[in-house]
C-alpha cells in the first residue's frame, strides 16, 4: 500500500473545510476578522478553546505570532461548538457545488470504507486526530466521508509532526527544507506560515533528512489501510480518484498550496474529465 497515493485522494476532500469560498463565507458570517482567524478557529475547535501556545504546538509549522493574531480572539467571536457548526456547513456547501450530486451510491460506499479506516487509525500521540474522532459523525454520506477524511488527514499530520520532532527538524526549518525539495517560492512559504525573512535565513542552510521524515510519515499512516485490507483499500482508491480530481480541478483556492499538492497532475488518468 502506498500511503502517499491514499493521501492524495483524501486530502482534497478534506481541504474544502478551509480553502473554499463557502468556508470563508461561513466564518465571515460568524464574525471572524480575516480568513486566518476562521482557519485557526475551525481547525482548532475540536480541541476546545485552545490557547495559542497549544495550537502552535500541534499545528507545528506556523509561526507563534501568526497563531496569536487569531487566538484567543477567535473564541471571543464564537464558541468552539459554533466553529464546528460552520465548518461542517461550509464543507457541505462546498462539496455540493464542487461535486454536483452528492447523493450517489459511490459516495456512500466510499464513506463506509473511509469510516472503517478512520476508526482504525491509532490515536496515541495524535491529538488532532483524537479530537476530531471524538466528535459526532454526520448522518449524510458525503459529510460522513468528509469527517472520515478529516480524521485520516489529521492522523497523518500528527504522525508527520512526530517524525519531524524525532529527526530534530524544527517548524521553520521544515518549511525551508520542503520549499527547497519541491521548488516552492520561499517568500510564499514564509508568508503562508508567518515567518520573517530573518527567521527563514537562520534555518535555510541547516541540514535535515526530509526523505527520512516523509518515509516515517508514510509508515505511520499505513495502519488504517492495513486494517481495512487490500480489497477495501483498492476499492477506496477507485472511488476517491474521480472525487479528488473533480474537487482539485474546480477548487481555485487550492491551485497553489504549501503542501505542493497537485492531484490533477499526480492522479490524472486516461479519459478522465471534469
Summarize the topology.
Blueprint: H1 3-15, H2 21-30, H3 35-44, H4 52-59, H5 64-68, H6 73-77, H7 80-99, H8 105-120, H9 127-133, H10 141-166, H11 171-181, H12 186-193, H13 197-204, H14 210-220, H15 223-228, H16 230-250, H17 263-267
Helix pairs in contact: 1-10, 1-16, 2-3, 2-7, 3-7, 8-10, 8-16, 9-10, 10-14, 11-13
Number of DSSP helices?
Answer: 17
Low-confidence stretches: none
Whole-number mean pLDDT: 94
Secondary structure: helix percent: 55-70%
Q: Which term fits the overall shape? A: globular
- Approximate strand percentage: under 5%
Q: What kind of sheet is the major sheet?
A: none
Helix and strand string, N-terminal first? HHHHHHHHHHHHHHHHH
By secondary-structure content and strand pairing, the structural class works out as mainly alpha
From the N-terminal CA to the C-terminal CA, the straight-line distance is 27 Å
- Oligomeric organization of the protein chains: single chain
Cα gyration radius (Å): 18 Å
Instruction: Report the strand count.
Output: 0
Please describe what this structure looks like:
- With about 270 residues, the chain is mainly α.
- The chain has 17 helices and no strands.
- Helix 1 (about 5-15) packs across helix 10 (about 140-165) and helix 8 (about 105-120) packs across helix 16 (about 230-250).
- It is globular, with a radius of gyration of 18 Å.
- The relative contact order is 0.16.
- This is SalK.
- InterPro entries: HTH_67 (IPR054058).
- It comes from Lentzea sokolovensis.
Amino acid at each position: 500500500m502506498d500511503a502517499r497515493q491514499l493521501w492524495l485522494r483524501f486530502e482534497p476532500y478534506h481541504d474544502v473545510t478551509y480553502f473554499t469560498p463557502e468556508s470563508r463565507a461561513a466564518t465571515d458570517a460568524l464574525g471572524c476578522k480575516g480568513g486566518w482567524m476562521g482557519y485557526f478557529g475551525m481547525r482548532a475547535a475540536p480541541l476546545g478553546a485552545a490557547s495559542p501556545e497549544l495550537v502552535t504546538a500541534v499545528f507545528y509549522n506556523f509561526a507563534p505570532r501568526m497563531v496569536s493574531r487569531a487566538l484567543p480572539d477567535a473564541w471571543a467571536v464564537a464558541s468552539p461548538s459554533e466553529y464546528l457548526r460552520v465548518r461542517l456547513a461550509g464543507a457541505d456547501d462546498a462539496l455540493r457545488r464542487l461535486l454536483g450530486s452528492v447523493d450517489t451510491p459511490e459516495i456512500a460506499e466510499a464513506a463506509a470504507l473511509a469510516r472503517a479506516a478512520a476508526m482504525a487509525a491509532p490515536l496515541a500521540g495524535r491529538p488532532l486526530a483524537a479530537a476530531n474522532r471524538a466528535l459526532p459523525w454526520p448522518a449524510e454520506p458525503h459529510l460522513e466521508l468528509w469527517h472520515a477524511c478529516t480524521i485520516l488527514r489529521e492522523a497523518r499530520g500528527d504522525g508527520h509532526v512526530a517524525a519531524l520532532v524525532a529527526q530534530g527538524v524544527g517548524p521553520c526549518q521544515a518549511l525551508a527544507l520542503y520549499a527547497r525539495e519541491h521548488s516552492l517560492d520561499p517568500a510564499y512559504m514564509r508568508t503562508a506560515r508567518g515567518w520573517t525573512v530573518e527567521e527563514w535565513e537562520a534555518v535555510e542552510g541547516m541540514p535535515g533528512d526530509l526523505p527520512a521524515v516523509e518515509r516515517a510519515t508514510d509508515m505511520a499512516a499505513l495502519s488504517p489501510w492495513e486494517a481495512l485490507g487490500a480489497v477495501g483499500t483498492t476499492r477506496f482508491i477507485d472511488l476517491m480518484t474521480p472525487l479528488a480530481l473533480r474537487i482539485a480541478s474546480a477548487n481555485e483556492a487550492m491551485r497553489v498550496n504549501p503542501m505542493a499538492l497537485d492531484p490533477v497532475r499526480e492522479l490524472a488518468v486516461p479519459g478522465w474529465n471534469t
